[in-house]
TrEMBL record:
One of its GO terms (molecular function) is oxidoreductase activity, acting on NAD(P)H. The lineage of its organism: Eukaryota, Viridiplantae, Streptophyta, Embryophyta, Tracheophyta. This is Monodehydroascorbate reductase. Transmembrane segments: none annotated. InterPro entries: FAD-oxidoreductase/Apoptosis (IPR050446), FAD/NAD-bd_sf (IPR036188). GO terms for cellular component: cytoplasm. Its cofactor is FAD. SUPFAM superfamilies: FAD/NAD(P)-binding domain.
Length: 68
């Protein structure tokens, strides 16, 4: 027979990590929480991406190619 958990979090992203952290701060006991995810690693905080990193500084040049 399978194991029963009091709390189950679906997904292993950053939100899952924060949800688990808040539940643990709330006083849940060991073994009451399960995170179900396809992620190969436990949730971790990823650095935020900024528009400055994703977009180049200065003017943006857009090329259009017309195929005839």
């Amino acid at each position: 027979m399978g194991r029963a958990f009091l709390y189950v979090i679906l997904g292993g992203g950053v939100a899952a990590g924060y949800a688990a952290l808040e539940l643990s701060r709330g006083g849940i006991s060991r073994g009451e929480l399960c995170i179900i995810s396809e992620e190969p690693v436990v949730p971790y905080e990823r650095p935020a991406l900024s528009k400055g990193f994703l977009l180049p500084e200065g003017p943006i040049i857009i090329f259009t190619i017309l195929l005839v």
